Amino acid sequence: MKPSLTVAIYGAGQVGRTVAGLLSSDAGYSVRGPFDRSHRAAALESGADVVVIATTSFLAKVAADIRAAVMAGSNVITTAEEAAYPWHYDEELARDLHTLALENEVTILGAGFNPGFAFDALALTASGVVPQVTSLRVERVVDLSGFSATILRRLGIGYSAAEFDAGIESGSITGHIGFPQSMRIVARQMGVSISEIQRSIHPIAAEGRYDLPALDILPGQSAGFRQRYVAIAEGRAWFDALFIGHVDPVASGFPTRDEIIVHSESGDVHLAIKPGINPQVGSSSVIANSIRRLVTAPAGWLTVADLPPACPASDAASAISAAPGRR
C-alpha cells in the first residue's frame, strides 16, 4: 500500500475545520491541524505534501504564507479569492511566486467554490458544447446565514444604508470577492481580451429583525446585497455576473440557485442548479477534492482551468504517483 499524503491545514475557521474533517475520514491522507495563527510555523514549515491556507481573502495578506510553505517544499492550495488569478491584482508578486514554485518543483493553486468552480470551471465546462461563445451570464443566490460575524460584516451585512455606502467607499465592505479572477480565468482560456470590468453593489434592507447565531440585524439594516460585475471585451458586455447574498433568501423572495447561460450564435446553453449549492460545503469540498490533482500537476502557479475537474475518490492513496518533473 502506498503511503498517505500529508496535508497541513493553516486556518482554524469553518473552512479549515471542514476540510480537515473531510480529509481525516479518508485513509489516503494524514492530516496535520487545522492550525491557528499562533501555530504558523507548524503548518507552513512542516514540509507536508500539501499545505491548505484558509485564512483570508486577500492576496497581499496570504503571499508571505504561500512563500513560506513553498520554501519548505510543499504544494499549496489557498482559499484566498484574490489568489484564484493573482495576476489581476499584482502581476509582479504572482510572477515571483510562480518562479519560486518552479524552482521548488511544487504547485500553487487558488480554489474554492466561487472563484474556483461556479463562475469559472463550471462555466468553461458548459461552454464546451457550443462552437463559439458570444457572451456569458452567471447568476448565484446564496444563503449567508451560516457565515461568521467577521465575514458577514465584511460582506456588508448589518449596516444602515449610509454606513453601507461609506464601507464600500473605504473598502471595509467588499461584498463577495473573486469575480474579476473568475472572469480572467475564463477569458484567458478562450483567448478573449478584457478591456475593463464594471462593478456595482447595493444593499437589501431587512424588513424585519434577524437574530442570527453570529449577528443581530435590525429592520432597515442590510440583510443582504445585490452585486454585479460586467467584463467588457471588444466594446460590449462579454461576461455578466450577478450575485445576490441574503441571510434569509427564500423567505425574502430570492430562492437559492446557481445558473450559467452560455450565449452562442448556434443556440444558448442554460445550466441551472436549484436549490443552489451550499457555499460552505461547496468550498470545502472543492479544496478537499483538489489535493490529488494538485500533487500530480505541473509545477508553478496554476488556475483551476489548468487542471482536470475536482472530484471525490474512493482511494486517494492510489493517486499519489508524482507527475513528470515533480519530486
What does this structure look like?
With 327 residues, the protein is α/β, with parallel strands linked by helices. The protein folds into two domains: 5-112 and 282-319, Rossmann fold (3-Layer(aba) Sandwich), CATH 3.40.50; 121-276, Dihydrodipicolinate Reductase, domain 2 (2-Layer Sandwich), CATH 3.30.360. The chain is 28% helix and 26% strand. It has helices at 14-24, 40-44, 59-71, 91-103, 121-127, 149-155, 161-170, 179-190, 279-288, 291-295; strands at residues 5-10, 29-35, 50-53, 75-78, 107-110, 135-143, 196-205, 210-211, 216-217, 222-233, 236-246, 257-263, 269-273, 300-302. The strands form three sheets. The protein has a six-stranded parallel beta sheet with strand order 2-1-3-4-5-14. A six-stranded mixed beta sheet has the order 7-10-11-6-12-13. The protein has a two-stranded antiparallel sheet with strand order 8-9. Helix 1 (14-24) packs across helix 9 and helix 3 packs parallel to helix 4. The chain is globular, with a radius of gyration of 20 Å. 44% of the residues are buried.
Describe the structure concisely.
With 327 residues, the chain is α/β, with parallel strands linked by helices. The chain contains ten helices and 14 strands. The model is unreliable at 316-325 (pLDDT under 50).
User: What integer is the average pLDDT?
Assistant: 93
Largest sheet data: 6 strands, parallel
Architecture per CATH nomenclature, i.e. the level-2 architecture of the largest domain:
2-Layer Sandwich
- The number of distinct helices, counting runs of at least 4 residues, comes to 10
Topology pattern, helix = H, strand = E: EHEHEHEHEHEHHHEEEEEEEHHE
What separation lies between the terminal Cα atoms? Answer: 19 Å
Structural domain count: 2
Which sequence of strands runs across the widest sheet?
Answer: 2-1-3-4-5-14
- CATH topological fold name of the largest domain: Dihydrodipicolinate Reductase, domain 2
Overall spatial form: globular
Fraction of residues in β-strands? 25-35%
Helix coverage percent of residues?
A: 25-40%
* Uncertain segments: 316-325
The radius of gyration computed from the alpha-carbon positions, rounded to a whole number of angstroms, is 20 Å
Q: Determine and state the CATH class of the largest domain.
A: Alpha Beta
Instruction: Please count the beta strands (DSSP E, at least 2 residues each).
Output: 14
